[in-house]
Design a protein that fits this description.
Elements lengths: L3 E5 L22 E8 L5 E8 L6 E5 L11 E8 L7 E9 L8 E10 L5 E7 L52 E5 L8 E8 L6 E2 L52 E4 L5 E4 L5 E5 L15 E3 L9 E2 L43 E2 L10 E6 L5 E5 L4 E4 L7 E2 L7 E6 L6 E5 L3 E5 L4 E6 L5 E9 L2 E8 L3 E6 L4 E7 L4 E6 L7 E6 L10 E6 L9 E2 L1 E3 L9 E8 L2 E6 L3 E5 L4 E4 L11 E8 L2 E6 L3 E6 L2 E2 L5 E2 L4 E8 L2 E6 L4 E4 L2
Parallel strand pairs: 1-5, 2-8, 34-38
Antiparallel strand pairs: 2-5, 3-4, 3-6, 6-7, 9-10, 9-11, 12-13, 14-15, 14-16, 17-46, 18-19, 19-20, 20-21, 22-23, 23-24, 24-25, 26-27, 27-28, 28-29, 30-31, 31-32, 32-33, 35-36, 36-37, 37-38, 39-40, 40-41, 41-42, 41-43, 44-45, 45-46
Length: 658
């Protein structure tokens, strides 16, 4: 008699199936008696019911209620009711799993569709038969079962392992726990490979019982006692765990960069391997990360060593004294060859802009002596004939301003206030805000030749020099001025300093009456105290017969400054009290230099009386003037590499980039 297991699906309760009543039959007054049969060892049976028209399915899982058996079929009987709201046509599905957790793989799955009457019980059967040739109750692994040999009834997962060179219990091992463990001996030296083992009741061919061979492809390598290795071949001949005993193989090399170790070469000799090669480095004077490779490498170093100070690991610079160019750098509008391809400002980086004269809003024939810059694009220009003009911000035209009938020689713009401080003939000084002329006063009856500003502890001080060799200090906030000294017979044409700098630099000539016939003169002063605080500086490199005046000075940093003057004279300060001459470029060797300014140590701009704008870099002069005009230039000011202003005679005003 076939064993039966009976279950109720969906909480089966005793139900009286009614007929002949006038009311509508309920969902539980008709049922399916479902019989699920199977011929294998199932540890989980899942039966689901679902309205054929869709909707949520209902599931019953049978696990522990199923019993293993030796042979024969098994069946489970369940009562299935439809749920409220379902139609009378149900899809019933039975799925059998070998795992009690009801997880893959599926042993068998079948579906049947049943239509229920209103008040009756109908029979339905799902047969989950699966292939089991040897009738051992286990399905073949080729049919997603676990029987590894479906032709032998004594081979299945529940079988007892026997010593017969077979995997009786289908766990992947043969004769485990019963036979002897043998090890593959490919080289026939009597010692096997411990990682290639078999368990067999008899010794297989090419297998050994000793599992101690450390190189089973070489018959000369096997365990042995008191064996001395003499060849550097990276082979552990005696399998003691150490290859090439007694040789320093594997130890750090002593004559190479760190990281290398001694190893065997193809000739079975010791060599250093893994040591990184030494790297070349190159001088990098401008600190832009690109070195100068024109004279080869400066030296070599190991990768873990720091680069020597002032060097780079690449030779990508074409001017190692100009921070703004190196190979691979992006070209910008600054008159330089930034990317070292031999061209400046190529690929229209200036968007069609260049050095251009500016005339809109300016007097046609004004003789401009000075230009000063403020914030937000403010530009001041002043000159003879009481000319004064200002552009209050970028993209606005210049407008003429009135600030007394003075021939103005010098101007200094405040970037914080936007005001300009003016100095001119007759010792006149004034302040202009852009709307009105303020603070007018007379310092002395000598022309003010240069003026500069310096903040000290948040107080703005203005300093002015004149042709009589006098230095004045003004404090606009206090509306006061003080003469600090009168140096005779010297005369001054230039002065400059930096905020909070301890020094003012002053330049001119030793001859007040005839500056061009005197000697160039440079001194420094702290800005407080009298003549006793003035320190004369030393000028070197000048011809013994040189005569002329210095006309302008610019302090780039507390330790770097440039001064320029007559007959191509350019001097560079060492930050102490010595200045060295820089030879002028061939294209401007004899011109009188009128003004100097600097954007940074790599960008020094100079004007001359031949109408040129020159660029001086630490490596030397640019190969050609940045600009050449038809009239002398008297002053220059710079905000950025693409915002440079120069002014001069006959109304000449030029701007880059315009």
């Amino acid at each position: 008699m076939t064993p039966m297991v009976r279950f109720a699906l969906f909480s089966l309760m005793s139900t009286v199936l009614l007929s002949g009543c006038s009311r509508t039959p309920g969902a539980r007054e008709a049922a399916v008696k479902l019989t699920v049969t199977y011929n294998f060892r199932a540890k989980c049976l899942v039966v689901t019911a679902q309205d054929k028209n869709g909707g949520e399915e209902t599931k019953e899982t049978l696990t522990g209620k199923l019993k293993n058996f030796e042979q024969g079929s098994q069946s489970a009987v369940l009562a299935v009711f439809r749920k409220e709201g379902w139609s009378r046509t149900l899809n019933l599905t039975a799925t059998a799993y070998e795992s009690p957790s009801c997880q893959e793989p599926v042993l068998a799955k079948q579906e049947v569709t049943v239509t229920l009457p209103e008040t009756q019980v109908v029979d339905a059967t799902i047969d989950l038969a699966a292939p089991d040739e040897d009738k051992d109750g286990y399905i073949s692994n080729q049919a997603k079962g676990t029987d590894c040999d479906d032709s032998a009834s004594n081979i299945h997962p529940n079988a007892v392992e026997a010593c017969d060179d077979k995997d009786n219990n289908c766990d992947g091992d043969i004769d485990e726990g019963i036979g002897t463990r043998w090890y593959l001996d490919q080289d026939g030296d009597g010692f096997g490979d411990k990682n290639a083992a078999l368990v067999r009741c008899t010794r297989p061919a090419n297998y050994a019982q000793a599992p101690s061979d450390c190189l089973d492809s070489n018959p000369n390598v096997y365990p042995r006692q008191n064996f001395n290795e003499t060849t550097c071949d990276e082979v552990d001949d005696d399998c003691d765990g150490i290859a090439d005993d007694g040789l320093p193989k594997g130890q750090p090399c002593t004559d190479q960069c760190s990281g290398g170790k001694y190893a065997c070469d193809d000739k079975h000799e010791l060599t250093c391997r893994g040591a990184p090669s030494k790297q070349s480095y190159y001088p990098d004077r401008d600190g832009d990360g690109a070195g100068d490779g024109s004279n080869g490498a400066s030296g070599t170093k190991c990768p873990d060593e720091n680069l020597p100070l002032g060097t780079s690991d690449n030779p990508d610079d074409c001017d190692d004294q100009d921070y703004y160019n190196r190979r691979g750098k992006t070209e910008v509008c600054d008159g330089r060859d930034n990317d070292c391809n031999g061209l400046a400002d190529e690929n229209n980086v200036c968007a069609g802009k260049e050095w251009k004269p500016i005339t809109t809003g300016l007097p046609a024939k004004g003789f401009w002596k000075t230009v000063a810059l403020g914030s937000n694009g403010r530009v001041w220009m002043a000159g003879t004939g009481a000319t004064l003009a200002v552009r209050l911000q970028t993209d606005q035209p210049f407008t003429s301003q009135d600030c007394d009938s003075v021939n103005w020689n010098a101007a200094w713009g405040s970037t914080s206030s936007g005001n300009v401080f003016l100095g001119g003939e007759g010792g006149k000084v004034a302040l202009h805000s852009g709307a009105e002329c303020l603070g007018k006063r007379t310092l002395a009856h000598s022309s003010v030749t240069a003026i500069t500003g310096r903040k000290e502890s948040n107080t703005l001080w203005i300093y002015a020099v004149n042709t009589f060799g006098m230095l004045y200090a003004l404090v606009p906030a206090l509306d006061q001025s003080t003469q600090l000294f009168d140096k005779s017979p010297e005369t001054f044409f230039g002065i400059h300093s930096l905020d909070n700098s301890p020094l003012l630099l002053l330049v001119g000539s030793t001859s007040e009456s005839s500056p061009a016939s005197g000697l160039p003169y440079i001194a420094s002063h702290p800005g407080t105290g009298g003549l006793g605080q003035l320190k004369d500086h030393t000028l070197t490199g000048l011809p013994s017969d040189y005569r002329g005046a210095l006309r302008a000075v610019w302090m780039v940093s507390p330790s770097l400054a440039y001064a320029v003057g007559d007959k191509g004279l350019v001097l560079k300060w060492d930050g102490q009290q010595t200045w060295a001459r820089i030879a002028p470029p061939a294209y401007s060797a004899n011109a009188d230099y009128t003004s100097v300014t600097a954007l940074d140590p790599y960008s020094v701009y100079i004007t001359d009386t031949d109408g040129r704008v020159l660029l001086l870099k630490p490596s030397g002069w640019a190969p050609a003037p940045l600009y050449t005009g038809s009239h002398p230039l008297r002053d220059i000011a710079v905000n950025a590499a693409d915002d440079i202003w120069a002014v001069g005679d006959n109304g000449l005003v030029v701007h880059f980039a315009e």
